[in-house]
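Section 5: illustrative case.
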């Protein structure tokens, strides 16, 4: 190939190669045994050129390579790099990866639970840890050159997303930011914001999956492709598999779905339906795994949106006798598991269901969910990556960044509980879940399998699978802790400006741009209409206003009159009795009628007052033309009264034509001679209204009233008024979206000033204490310290009270009051609720709304008894039995309690000030951090 180049071209190519060899990227590429993708190379070159980067690429496409290059650059420059992740498990995993590559002396870990080598040049941490370091002005920030934010799309998370924006806004300008995101549809918008707040940022978007993904539906024994390629002369496009469409139509057809009309079916048709029906069912979990195994599609992750469902799936596979590992693999699994769990006492292993769990692992089957002990989850992850676990049943938490790629991903259902209701999964969630399918460098293709369910819509599934991206939406909201920290560092004015630079405000302002353009366009139109309605005789705008006021007043009086007539008519209908002869004034059945039944609404006879047009009296009448009809209030626009009385024979049967004929004849004989008054319109209220008279007089006296072109001017004036009204509505929308974050901050600032946390644009001593308390109930914790609520509590009692600040029941509407420790702890918990009530009233007064993600929820004592028992030294078996919660949940809540206890120890008054809270908080940490809670996930 080079022989075809001219000497000048060969020389130029040689110079390019030499230049590339001189870059930091060249030795970095040699660390990998595969070629980097073009997007990875582009991002690395941008980083080496000193730019920040935003990399948006599909799950499993290797975007973390770019983050690892930032680590490589930091080490080459003898500077620091912080690698942040959204969850501790992912931090632990990344720490292990970097230690293997660069050595334990160069890599540290900070997750709140663990602190390993914190002075290392490369530190892996959760995003919250970095946020806290920034607010505290930590010395560890010195020499920081790069920050990698893995899974940066987490800033959409409504509970924790604000942390990502806080970090991005507050990082020193000298730090280069590497943002790694799943594929989002507004990456350019997010990149524009990063460019605004961080400086030169290059956006690199890759839609390419290195391992192609095939979509399937498993129904009965057959696996159907979701799409089939169709060549329509336009290069081919993907259509929904017609077999699936036909199955869905057949299942939803009347005979198939409900069994109707079967008597008219021929025997051959019934037999064909039976055969078709026998091919369509939702296969059981063991059946699915066997089917995948037979098709060589294992290892597989089956997503079940329920922890209990995951555990049940493992048991079902065990009962079905599934064995996915051979004898050698079984022995290796046992060896690894025993090594990883050696530090857990035998009595705890029994409580944790260790032997049932081990049996599943030896067969190559496991569950993975947040209710499991962290050590157990990590073992499952390791065995799965090593190919020793081939079928994992997991909740959606596994999809959040954990490196567990599979050949196949199975979705049992497309509906999940979102904390409030059962809702369809979104295209973004579907992409995140199925993105695990296809292992780079191992699989030629990945497979996403959805199980057939009754009433499944293949078109809707194709829409989920075909929508590859989802928008990134900010969930940023100021908090009390954030406000105090900002004011303490920057003062109120500068803090307000910083908050205005958030992505939330950036998005709100951007949405305002389109509205502003429409307002500008409307204003130009308004000016044109103003010219069109100009009258040489006077101010036509004033004349048009008088016309509008007159029209509005007439409309208002007409509505009032109609309402009064309806009420009067309904009241007259209530007085009717069987046997009354009436005149129906309007409608299809106008004329003489005999009331058979007054048709009063239920409850009316008992003295209940009031009804509307829909539940008013509906008299059943016999007309003079022998028809029996139920009339409605609309048939009586005016009041009705009885003209005569008739006796209705007891033998009268409304269904009998003879009975109707005889009674109608009697009706005509009784009242046919009467001269019926025609319904005449009443005098309109407008005729006697003084305001209308005044407006009409002013209108006739106005100079423009005599203009020959008055009606032309009036048409322009009407357009002018309508466009002006629409423009004012747009301006109100703009006002509602502009400065929204700053307005929330102002309300928080006012409340904190009221409580003496802020004074004269500075944080008070109370404010400085609040600045060290992070969490959802930061202000409540600070107020408890301020009022001495926790003074005199023993360590276990303090742990119980602090648990109410972090715990949130999965079913908050549970009516059963949770068990709490007696004595001082119970009194303190009651005081915490009292203080929360006072804060809640203050938040309402200052218009701070919990529905908007700001404010303090009520403390939840649901974990108080469990952590009290644990901190008091009770055994794991007894605690879990009393707590009625899985071991994983227990450990997770304990670690959150430990985290807040550490914050309280740092924020509480010192012992010199007569407080024992700091000392007892540290003792409480030691009391809780034992046994299963203390087992570190990092060796």
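Designed sequence:
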């Amino acid at each position: 190939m080079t022989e075809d180049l001219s000497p000048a071209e060969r020389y130029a190519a040689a110079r390019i190669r030499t230049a590339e060899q001189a870059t930091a990227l060249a030795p970095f590429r040699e660390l990998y045994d595969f070629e980097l993708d073009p997007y990875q190379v582009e991002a690395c070159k941008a980083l080496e050129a000193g730019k920040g980067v935003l990399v948006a690429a599909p799950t499993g496409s290797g975007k973390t390579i770019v983050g690892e290059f930032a680590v490589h650059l930091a080490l080459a420059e003898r500077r620091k790099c912080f690698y942040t992740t959204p969850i501790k498990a992912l931090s632990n995993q990344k720490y292990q990866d970097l230690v293997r590559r660069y050595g334990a002396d160069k890599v540290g870990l900070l997750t709140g639970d663990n602190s390993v080598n914190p002075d290392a040049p490369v530190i892996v941490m959760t995003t919250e840890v970095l946020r806290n370091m920034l607010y505290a002005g930590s010395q560890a920030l010195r020499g920081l050159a790069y920050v990698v934010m893995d899974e940066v799309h987490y800033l959409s998370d409504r509970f924790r997303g604000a942390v990502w924006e806080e970090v991005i806004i507050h990082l020193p300008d000298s730090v280069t930011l590497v943002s790694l995101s799943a594929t989002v549809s507004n990456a350019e918008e997010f990149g524009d914001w990063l460019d605004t707040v961080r400086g030169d940022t290059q956006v690199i978007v890759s839609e390419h999956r290195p391992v192609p993904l095939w979509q399937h539906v498993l129904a009965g024994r057959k696996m159907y492709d979701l799409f089939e390629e169709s060549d329509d002369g336009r290069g081919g496009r993907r259509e929904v598999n017609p077999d699936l469409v036909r199955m869905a139509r057949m299942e939803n057809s009347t005979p198939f779905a409900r069994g109707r009309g079967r008597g008219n079916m021929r025997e051959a048709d019934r037999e064909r339906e039976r055969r078709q029906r026998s091919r369509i069912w939702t296969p059981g979990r063991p059946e699915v795994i066997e089917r995948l195994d037979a098709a060589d599609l294992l290892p597989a992750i089956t997503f079940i949106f329920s922890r209990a469902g995951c555990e049940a799936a493992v048991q079902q596979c065990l009962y079905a006798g599934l064995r996915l590992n051979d004898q050698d693999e079984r022995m290796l699994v046992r060896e690894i598991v025993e090594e990883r769990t050696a530090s857990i006492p035998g009595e705890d292993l029994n409580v944790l269901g260790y032997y049932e769990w081990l049996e599943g692992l030896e067969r190559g089957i496991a569950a993975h969910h947040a209710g499991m002990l962290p050590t157990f989850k990590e073992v499952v992850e390791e065995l799965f990556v090593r190919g020793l676990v081939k079928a994992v049943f997991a909740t959606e938490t596994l999809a959040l960044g954990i490196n567990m790629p599979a050949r196949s991903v199975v979705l049992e259902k497309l509906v999940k509980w979102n904390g409030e209701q059962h809702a369809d999964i979104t295209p973004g969630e579907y992409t995140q879940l199925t993105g695990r399918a296809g292992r780079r460098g191992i699989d030629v293709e990945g497979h996403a399998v959805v199980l057939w369910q009754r009433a499944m819509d293949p078109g809707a599934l194709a829409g989920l699978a075909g929508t590859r991206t989802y928008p990134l939406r900010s969930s940023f909201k100021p908090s009390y802790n954030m406000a105090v920290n900002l004011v303490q560092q920057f003062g109120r004015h500068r803090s307000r400006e910083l908050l205005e630079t958030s992505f939330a405000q950036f998005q709100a302002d951007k949405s305002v741009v389109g509205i502003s353009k429409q307002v500008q366009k409307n204003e130009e139109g308004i000016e044109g209409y103003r010219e069109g309605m100009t009258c040489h005789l006077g101010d036509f705008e004033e004349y048009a206003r008088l016309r509008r006021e007159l029209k509005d007043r007439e409309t208002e009086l007409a509505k009032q009159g109609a309402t009064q007539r309806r009420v009067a008519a309904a009241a007259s209908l209530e007085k009717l009795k069987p046997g009354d002869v009436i005149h129906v004034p309007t409608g299809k059945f106008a004329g003489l009628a005999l009331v058979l039944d007054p048709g009063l609404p239920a409850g009316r006879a008992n003295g209940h007052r009031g009804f509307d047009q829909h539940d008013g009296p509906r008299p059943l009448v016999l007309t003079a033309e022998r028809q029996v009809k139920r009339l409605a209030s609309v048939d009586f626009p005016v009041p009705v009264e009885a003209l005569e009385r008739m006796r209705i024979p007891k033998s009268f049967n409304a269904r009998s034509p003879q009975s109707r004929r005889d009674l109608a004849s009697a009706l005509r004989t009784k009242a046919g001679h009467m001269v019926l008054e025609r319904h005449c319109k009443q005098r309109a209220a407008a005729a006697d209204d003084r305001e209308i008279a005044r407006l009409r007089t002013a209108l006739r006296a106005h100079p423009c009233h005599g203009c020959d072109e008055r009606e032309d001017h009036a048409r322009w004036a009407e357009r002018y008024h309508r466009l002006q009204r629409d423009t004012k509505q747009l301006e109100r929308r703009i006002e509602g979206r502009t400065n929204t974050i700053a307005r929330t901050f102002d309300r928080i600032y006012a409340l904190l000033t009221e409580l003496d946390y802020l004074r004269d644009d500075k944080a008070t001593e109370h404010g400085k204490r609040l600045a060290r308390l992070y969490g959802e109930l930061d202000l409540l914790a600070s107020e408890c310290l301020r009022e001495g609520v926790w003074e005199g509590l023993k360590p276990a009692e303090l742990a119980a009270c602090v648990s109410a600040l972090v715990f949130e029941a999965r079913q908050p509407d549970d009516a059963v009051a949770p068990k709490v420790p007696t004595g001082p702890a119970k009194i303190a918990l009651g005081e915490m609720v009292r203080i929360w009530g006072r804060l809640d009233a203050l938040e309402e007064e200052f218009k701070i709304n919990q529905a908007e993600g700001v404010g303090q929820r009520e403390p939840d004592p649901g974990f108080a008894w469990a952590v009290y028992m644990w901190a008091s030294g009770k055994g794991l078996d007894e605690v879990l039995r009393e707590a009625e919660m899985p071991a994983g949940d227990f450990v997770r809540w304990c670690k959150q309690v430990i985290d807040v206890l550490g914050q309280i120890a740092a924020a509480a008054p010192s012992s010199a000030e007569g407080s024992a809270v700091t000392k007892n908080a540290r003792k409480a940490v030691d009391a809780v951090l034992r046994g299963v809670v203390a087992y570190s996930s990092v060796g």
